[in-house]
Every structure is written in C-alpha cells, then in structure tokens.
Amino acid sequence: MRDALQVLEVVMGLGLFALAKVPEWNLVNDGGTLKLHRAWKVKTFVKGMEFLRLVADVAEAEGHHPDLHLVGWNNIKIDIWTHAVGGLTENDFILAAKIGGLNLHHLLRITPSNK
C-alpha cells in the first residue's frame, strides 16, 4: 500500500505529463526511495562503455548525475533520482527524456528492456 501511495504522490506532484514523456522508464521503489529505472543490453563490453560515456556527457551537461551500472559484460542499468530530496523531481524526468532521445541503437544488442 505504501508503494502505491508514493507512486500516486509522484504522479499528483509531477503530473501524468512527466510520466508520459518517459514511457520506457519504470517507476520503482528502492528501499523507500522512488527512482526512474531502465535497462538495456549492449553488443559488447566496449559498446557498453561507449553507451555510458554518451549518457555521462548528457548528465554532465545537465548537472544531474544518475547511477550508471555496467553489470556483467553487456547489461546497462540506470537509476535516476534526486539524492538531495531522496526521491523524484522534474529534473529526473527531464534527464530520463534526454537519455531516451540519444541515438544508442548502434550500441544495442537487442530491443531495449525495462528490466
């Protein structure tokens, strides 16, 4: 029930518009902290590093830094939330939309997933 209430608070506070702008991202509760989460599979380890560099460039330009994970040799996972508030803000959705707009298809092994 608490998870559902937190999601409702985010939707009410940021509006459905924010969620609609990042349909590929999942809203997850990680130990009481709401985050945007997305996962991809890349072709190779080196392609994974290139993927992370492209995301890091966007994050640095925005001054907003997500948690970036290269798990195994080809699994990329990204979690976005605002550490200072312990949850989601409009900036998180903006960054997720900008990451979603990157041309990353040449790096991907399969269709992006939300796992």
UniProtKB/TrEMBL annotation:
The cross-references to CDD domains, in alphabetical order and at most eight, read: PCD_DCoH_subfamily_a
Which key words are in the record? Answer: Lyase
Primary enzyme class: lyase
Show which residues constitute the signal peptide: none
What's its EC?
4.2.1.96
Give the superkingdom in one word: Eukaryota
Stored InterPro entries: PCD_sf, Pterin_deHydtase
User: What's the short name of a Pfam family annotated to this entry?
Assistant: Pterin_4a
What is the reaction catalyzed? Answer: (4aS,6R)-4a-hydroxy-L-erythro-5,6,7,8-tetrahydrobiopterin = (6R)-L-erythro-6,7-dihydrobiopterin + H2O
Family (UniProt): Belongs to the pterin-4-alpha-carbinolamine dehydratase family.
Q: What is the name of this protein?
A: 4a-hydroxytetrahydrobiopterin dehydratase
Lineage, highest ranks first: Eukaryota, Viridiplantae, Streptophyta, Embryophyta, Tracheophyta
